[in-house]
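Anyone else keep sequences and structure tokens together like this?

Example one:
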Amino acid sequence: MAEIRNPNQGGGGDSNKPLLYMMLAMIVAFTVFQMWRGTKTQPLQKPTATNSATAPNAAGKSPVPTGSTQAFNQQAAGTAGAGNAAGAAAAVPAVVGTAEQTTVVENQLYRIAFSSRGGEVRSWVLKGQKDRYGAPLDLVHGAAAKQFGYPMSIYTYDQGQNANLKQALFVPSATGNLLAPQTLTFHYAQGGYDITKTFRFDETYVVHAEAEVKQNGVPVRALLAWPGGFGDQEQAQDYNSATVETMRGGKEEHLAFKKVVGGDTLNAPVDFAGVADQYFAAVMLPENIDNATAVTLSNKIDVQKLARDGKATGKSVDVPLLGVAVGATDGPAKLRVFAGPKSVPVLKSVTVSGRSGESLAPIMDFGFFGPIAKGLFWALYWTHEHLASNWGWAIVVLTVLINAVLIPLRVQTMKSALKMQRIQPQMDAIKAKYAKYKVTDPKKAEMNAEIMDLQKKEGVNMLGGCIPTLIQLPLLFAMLSTIPKVFELRGAHWFWLHDLTAADPWHVLPITLVISQFLVSFYMPSPGVDPAQQRMMAFMMPAFSLFITWNYASGLGIYWVVGNILMVITQLVMNQTALGKEMRALAAKRARKKANAPQGAKVIQGRR
């Protein structure tokens, strides 16, 4: 067996324990984050009465069964006064469809299929977007919509009424396939009810929607709803990552499912309200924010638990299902509906009514390291636009730029390490003087005071060698939370990788990261670190890096591997400078001295 020595390793002591504690804290933080992300299942709130399809209506009566249009007509006639109902029926000619019909509207971005039953959306396919199986992505969650309602359904505070409105056969202004720009209207009138839905389509992701409901000529407070779920939600973590996105008075809020109360009303001003998952959002923007109202919807749905390869495990789990309904406090509901990708440029193009400069961009939630993560995202986006047309190469280029900026700090780290090596013999002498005392002995405090006085006298800053690490850790955490959320990286290719938000299928990056992490630990200067601590960090950090990236977004692996390789190359170059040569000479001298000691030197062992 031959000894493998770190050329920059000085020797014993525990003066660098703060660095060890910081690295251990990072490991704990990474572990907690990974466990929270992959296995967290929170208890669900029970749906309130306003969310149950079988809840009593406003009058305290059970709703009429929702199986037919006739049932809806019977309930409408029963809830209206006899005289008023007769007068309304005479004043408004009946407008009722004879059979369910389908109308499809499409532009270059989407293909939306409406049903005349309820005047609702049955599918909302985004062109150019694929689900995890390669099929066209439908934003409508089929199972959830069938159970809780389809997009653009009418929501009132009478759930029995809501259920029956979904069964009403509207008369569409057109059927078949239509191309945007287009206007589509659905009309229903019978039993005292007069309901009109109007949708206007252009070449963007935004659809203009209006809904007006009258009962016996009196306006009914009715909202348009996206009851919950997206077509790309399959695994439990997809549902758990969903949020309700709101902005009121210019202040945005991201509500996780634990904080969403089903049936909770948000009063004016409501700038926008919607639901979002990791990559897509359905957001409603009222035309008059000062006369707008919104209702948050929370249900639960039983889904099949999937393995990481997408195959069913045979187990099921209850997961949260979030939705919203938006309209006006009085009068018809007039709003714009955005249903599309959470691409920041796209979100910035959708402005908020009555709010100069405000857009949907705030629904991008970058987490605790938001400001840093947002800066990294825009730097990555700029790099992709101007320096690299491929997102994988954009990550590589951005990593190179970040490391170039950190070079002066690494030079400063080497200078600090050199000063530490120069005074290491004096520090060892002080420690030897107090070696006979126990750790809990007050004399140890005197030892630490002497060491600190020596460092102060020689101009040694204990934190000087930690500055690059202190900068890189927030960047790593920010990248950790950013890359899986960036829509542009979804489906982005780079060599063998076909989706930079998915794990490396061949695990090439995690394995390479382990090797590069070991080289970083081996070549980076660590004067004053105890050999036992050095060995622990040399093997613990690569193992933990492997744990983090094995099933994480491959874009993070690119950033981490390239950063480590650049750190090693930079250190090798710096080792050839006068500063580096002096450090290695001091390290070699110290190693020879410890090798001649009776107890021997503790070193990292490896094969020749």
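And example two:
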Amino acid sequence: MGQKFQYDESGGTFFYFLLSFLALILIPATFYYWPRKKKRDPEEENKECKCPECYIKREYLKNAEPWKGPKNFLIKLVIIAGWVILVLLAYKVSQFDYEMANFDPYEILGVPIGASQGEIKKAYRRLSLILHPDKDTGNEKEFMKLSKAYQALTDEEARKNWEKYGNPDGPGAMSFGIALPSWIVEKENSVWVLGLYALVFMVALPIVVGTWWYRSIKFTGDQVLLDTTQMYYYFFHKTPNMALKRVIMILAASLEFDKRHNSEIVERQSDNEEVPQLIKKLPNLNEKNKERPLCYLYSIKARAIIHAHLGRIPLNPTTLEVDRRYIIGKCPYLINEQVNCVNQLILLAYARRIQKLPSIETIENCMKLCPMIVQGLWEYKSPLLQLPYINDDNLKYFMSKKRQIKTLQQYAQLKGDDRRSLLRSLTEEEYENVMKVLGRMPYIDFQIQVEVMDDDNPTEVTAGAIVTVTVTLVRKDMGTLFGDDTVKENTTITENGTEEVKEGAGEPEAEATVKRPAWLKQKRGGGKKTKKFSKQGSKPASVPKPKAEESPKPPSEKKKEKPKVKEVKEDDETDESDESDADTNENDKSSDESGVNKSNNEDDDQEWEKFRKIHEREKSLEGKSKSSHPVHCPLFPHDKQEYWWTYICDRKSRTLLTAPYHITSLVERETVHLKFTAPNWPGVYTFTVCLRSDSYIGFDQQKDIKLDVKEAPAEITEHPQWEFEDSEEEGPAENNDHESEYTTDEDLPEDED
């Protein structure tokens, strides 16, 4: 049985094609692109700041997209029109199916099955007199069906084929209709069809692909111009130790602010008058710098606007204020790119591909600039100015003789009456608004855990080992501090606004978030408990908790003071185990059975540790979320979410040990694993784990960790595969005059930071 391909003469299969194609596009387009109004929670509206600056910002964001209403209307109109066309096509196709499914010659002629030839002819003559096109009651379409039914029943062979196969022609060849109308291949239409193909595939498609490719190769993954990134690399390599104001100069020179590279930039004739007047109000702008592109007009204008933003200088609302919103809105993305560039240069310096190593101060100045931009404050200004209604006149009440309130945390920990007395110049409504904003600011419980994973002894660090620092962040609202009379036990707030967390504090909060599976529960009646503190979240009993009555000591004294360690006897530690042993003896169990239970408990601990690590690795492989908590930033033109950086550095050698990890999804709890290679030489090293906010000033924290690096085992150091050709040139390990990229505690005086 052969097959036959033919173009669709009637157009039925073409309608099937249109129907399916339109449905595949219309259904997901309706789901994703139908405009929806966001229902605002009344509780969230009550939590919003009601200060004048925030009100102006919300009105600006509402009016920032005037085309949003017409755009939503057009999208709805297109989707509705598509659904109307889809319904019409479905009705058309259903009519095709009805006509094809209802062709029955006996029913058309009105004769019963098995009727004689005479009855069939008589019925045909009677109906043809009615349906013939020449008659007044004629119907050409129905007459064609009548003729086809008559031919099917008067021919004996056709009648048998119909009764047997349902087709007068019998089991003919399988026919495939091409879902294109026949006029496409007609000779008189060939020129138009070829022209359409050429227009779509040879003109439109290459233009679309070329435009997309040209635009994509100009930007990095974070939508920063590649030319801007190359400029960052040049200046950070040229100036390894870069001051904060120099970082601002490099930021203002970004090509995103140059009209030649960004068509969204607006250049006005009034800039020739307004920008010089603004420069006169700004000290230390360094506008006479001759370096390119730092001396270009667009760079000087952007630098002046950034300085005016940090100084909270009002600008012309119709000209420079519009430019300020655009420039400041771009800055967080550009600053994050600066951090990435400095980090890449540090990696290249470690790989000895470049000679100059950027200092830790350079990358920290880049991070420090981000919250300054978001809050519109210089770093030397009081963090209290981040609250609404607070100005320089109110600050004099915070610095009285009785108390020295320098940080938001210190102010939040005061009694309610004391807090109100410091802001007695504000009305009750304004004061409630201040407390509302302060209560929603972040209070981070910052804890760390140091271990050497995939090693027999996770607590012992050997030379060249991979050290994993588990950073656990628990985010709470600042409102949890309201009403506290004393400073939190585990936190000391320094004068510069940073928080230093005492060693061993808050470790009960750092317990593993994954619940222990039921199949890993400890068996009862086991052996004695072993002294292991390698599990994450466990705390040695030898480290006492700090008491609430103890007054916090200055950081310099805390560094000199050595932690006091209790001597815990084996009998004191295993009292509970002895009781279980006594029960075991009463039940007449042998020591061999106890040893088996002890090994089973250790196996369960190992299985649980593997389960926890696998869970954390799977979580780390998930995509990063960009939603955390909204930031109160009335001077920043867009809505901002709380993001954080965490990294490890060596303050003494001024080097960076790990790449800064950008945390963008800290809602309640976040765990980050930072890994670095231990120093190659034995000794005691002090490193610093840092946490920096990219949204608020004065919320940075840091915690020191001490690593007692032991000499690596002989079977590792003397293994042939670790011996290199240049090992003799570097000198033996026993040599005391070696050079290390890290600095031990013995290399510097005790009073040096």
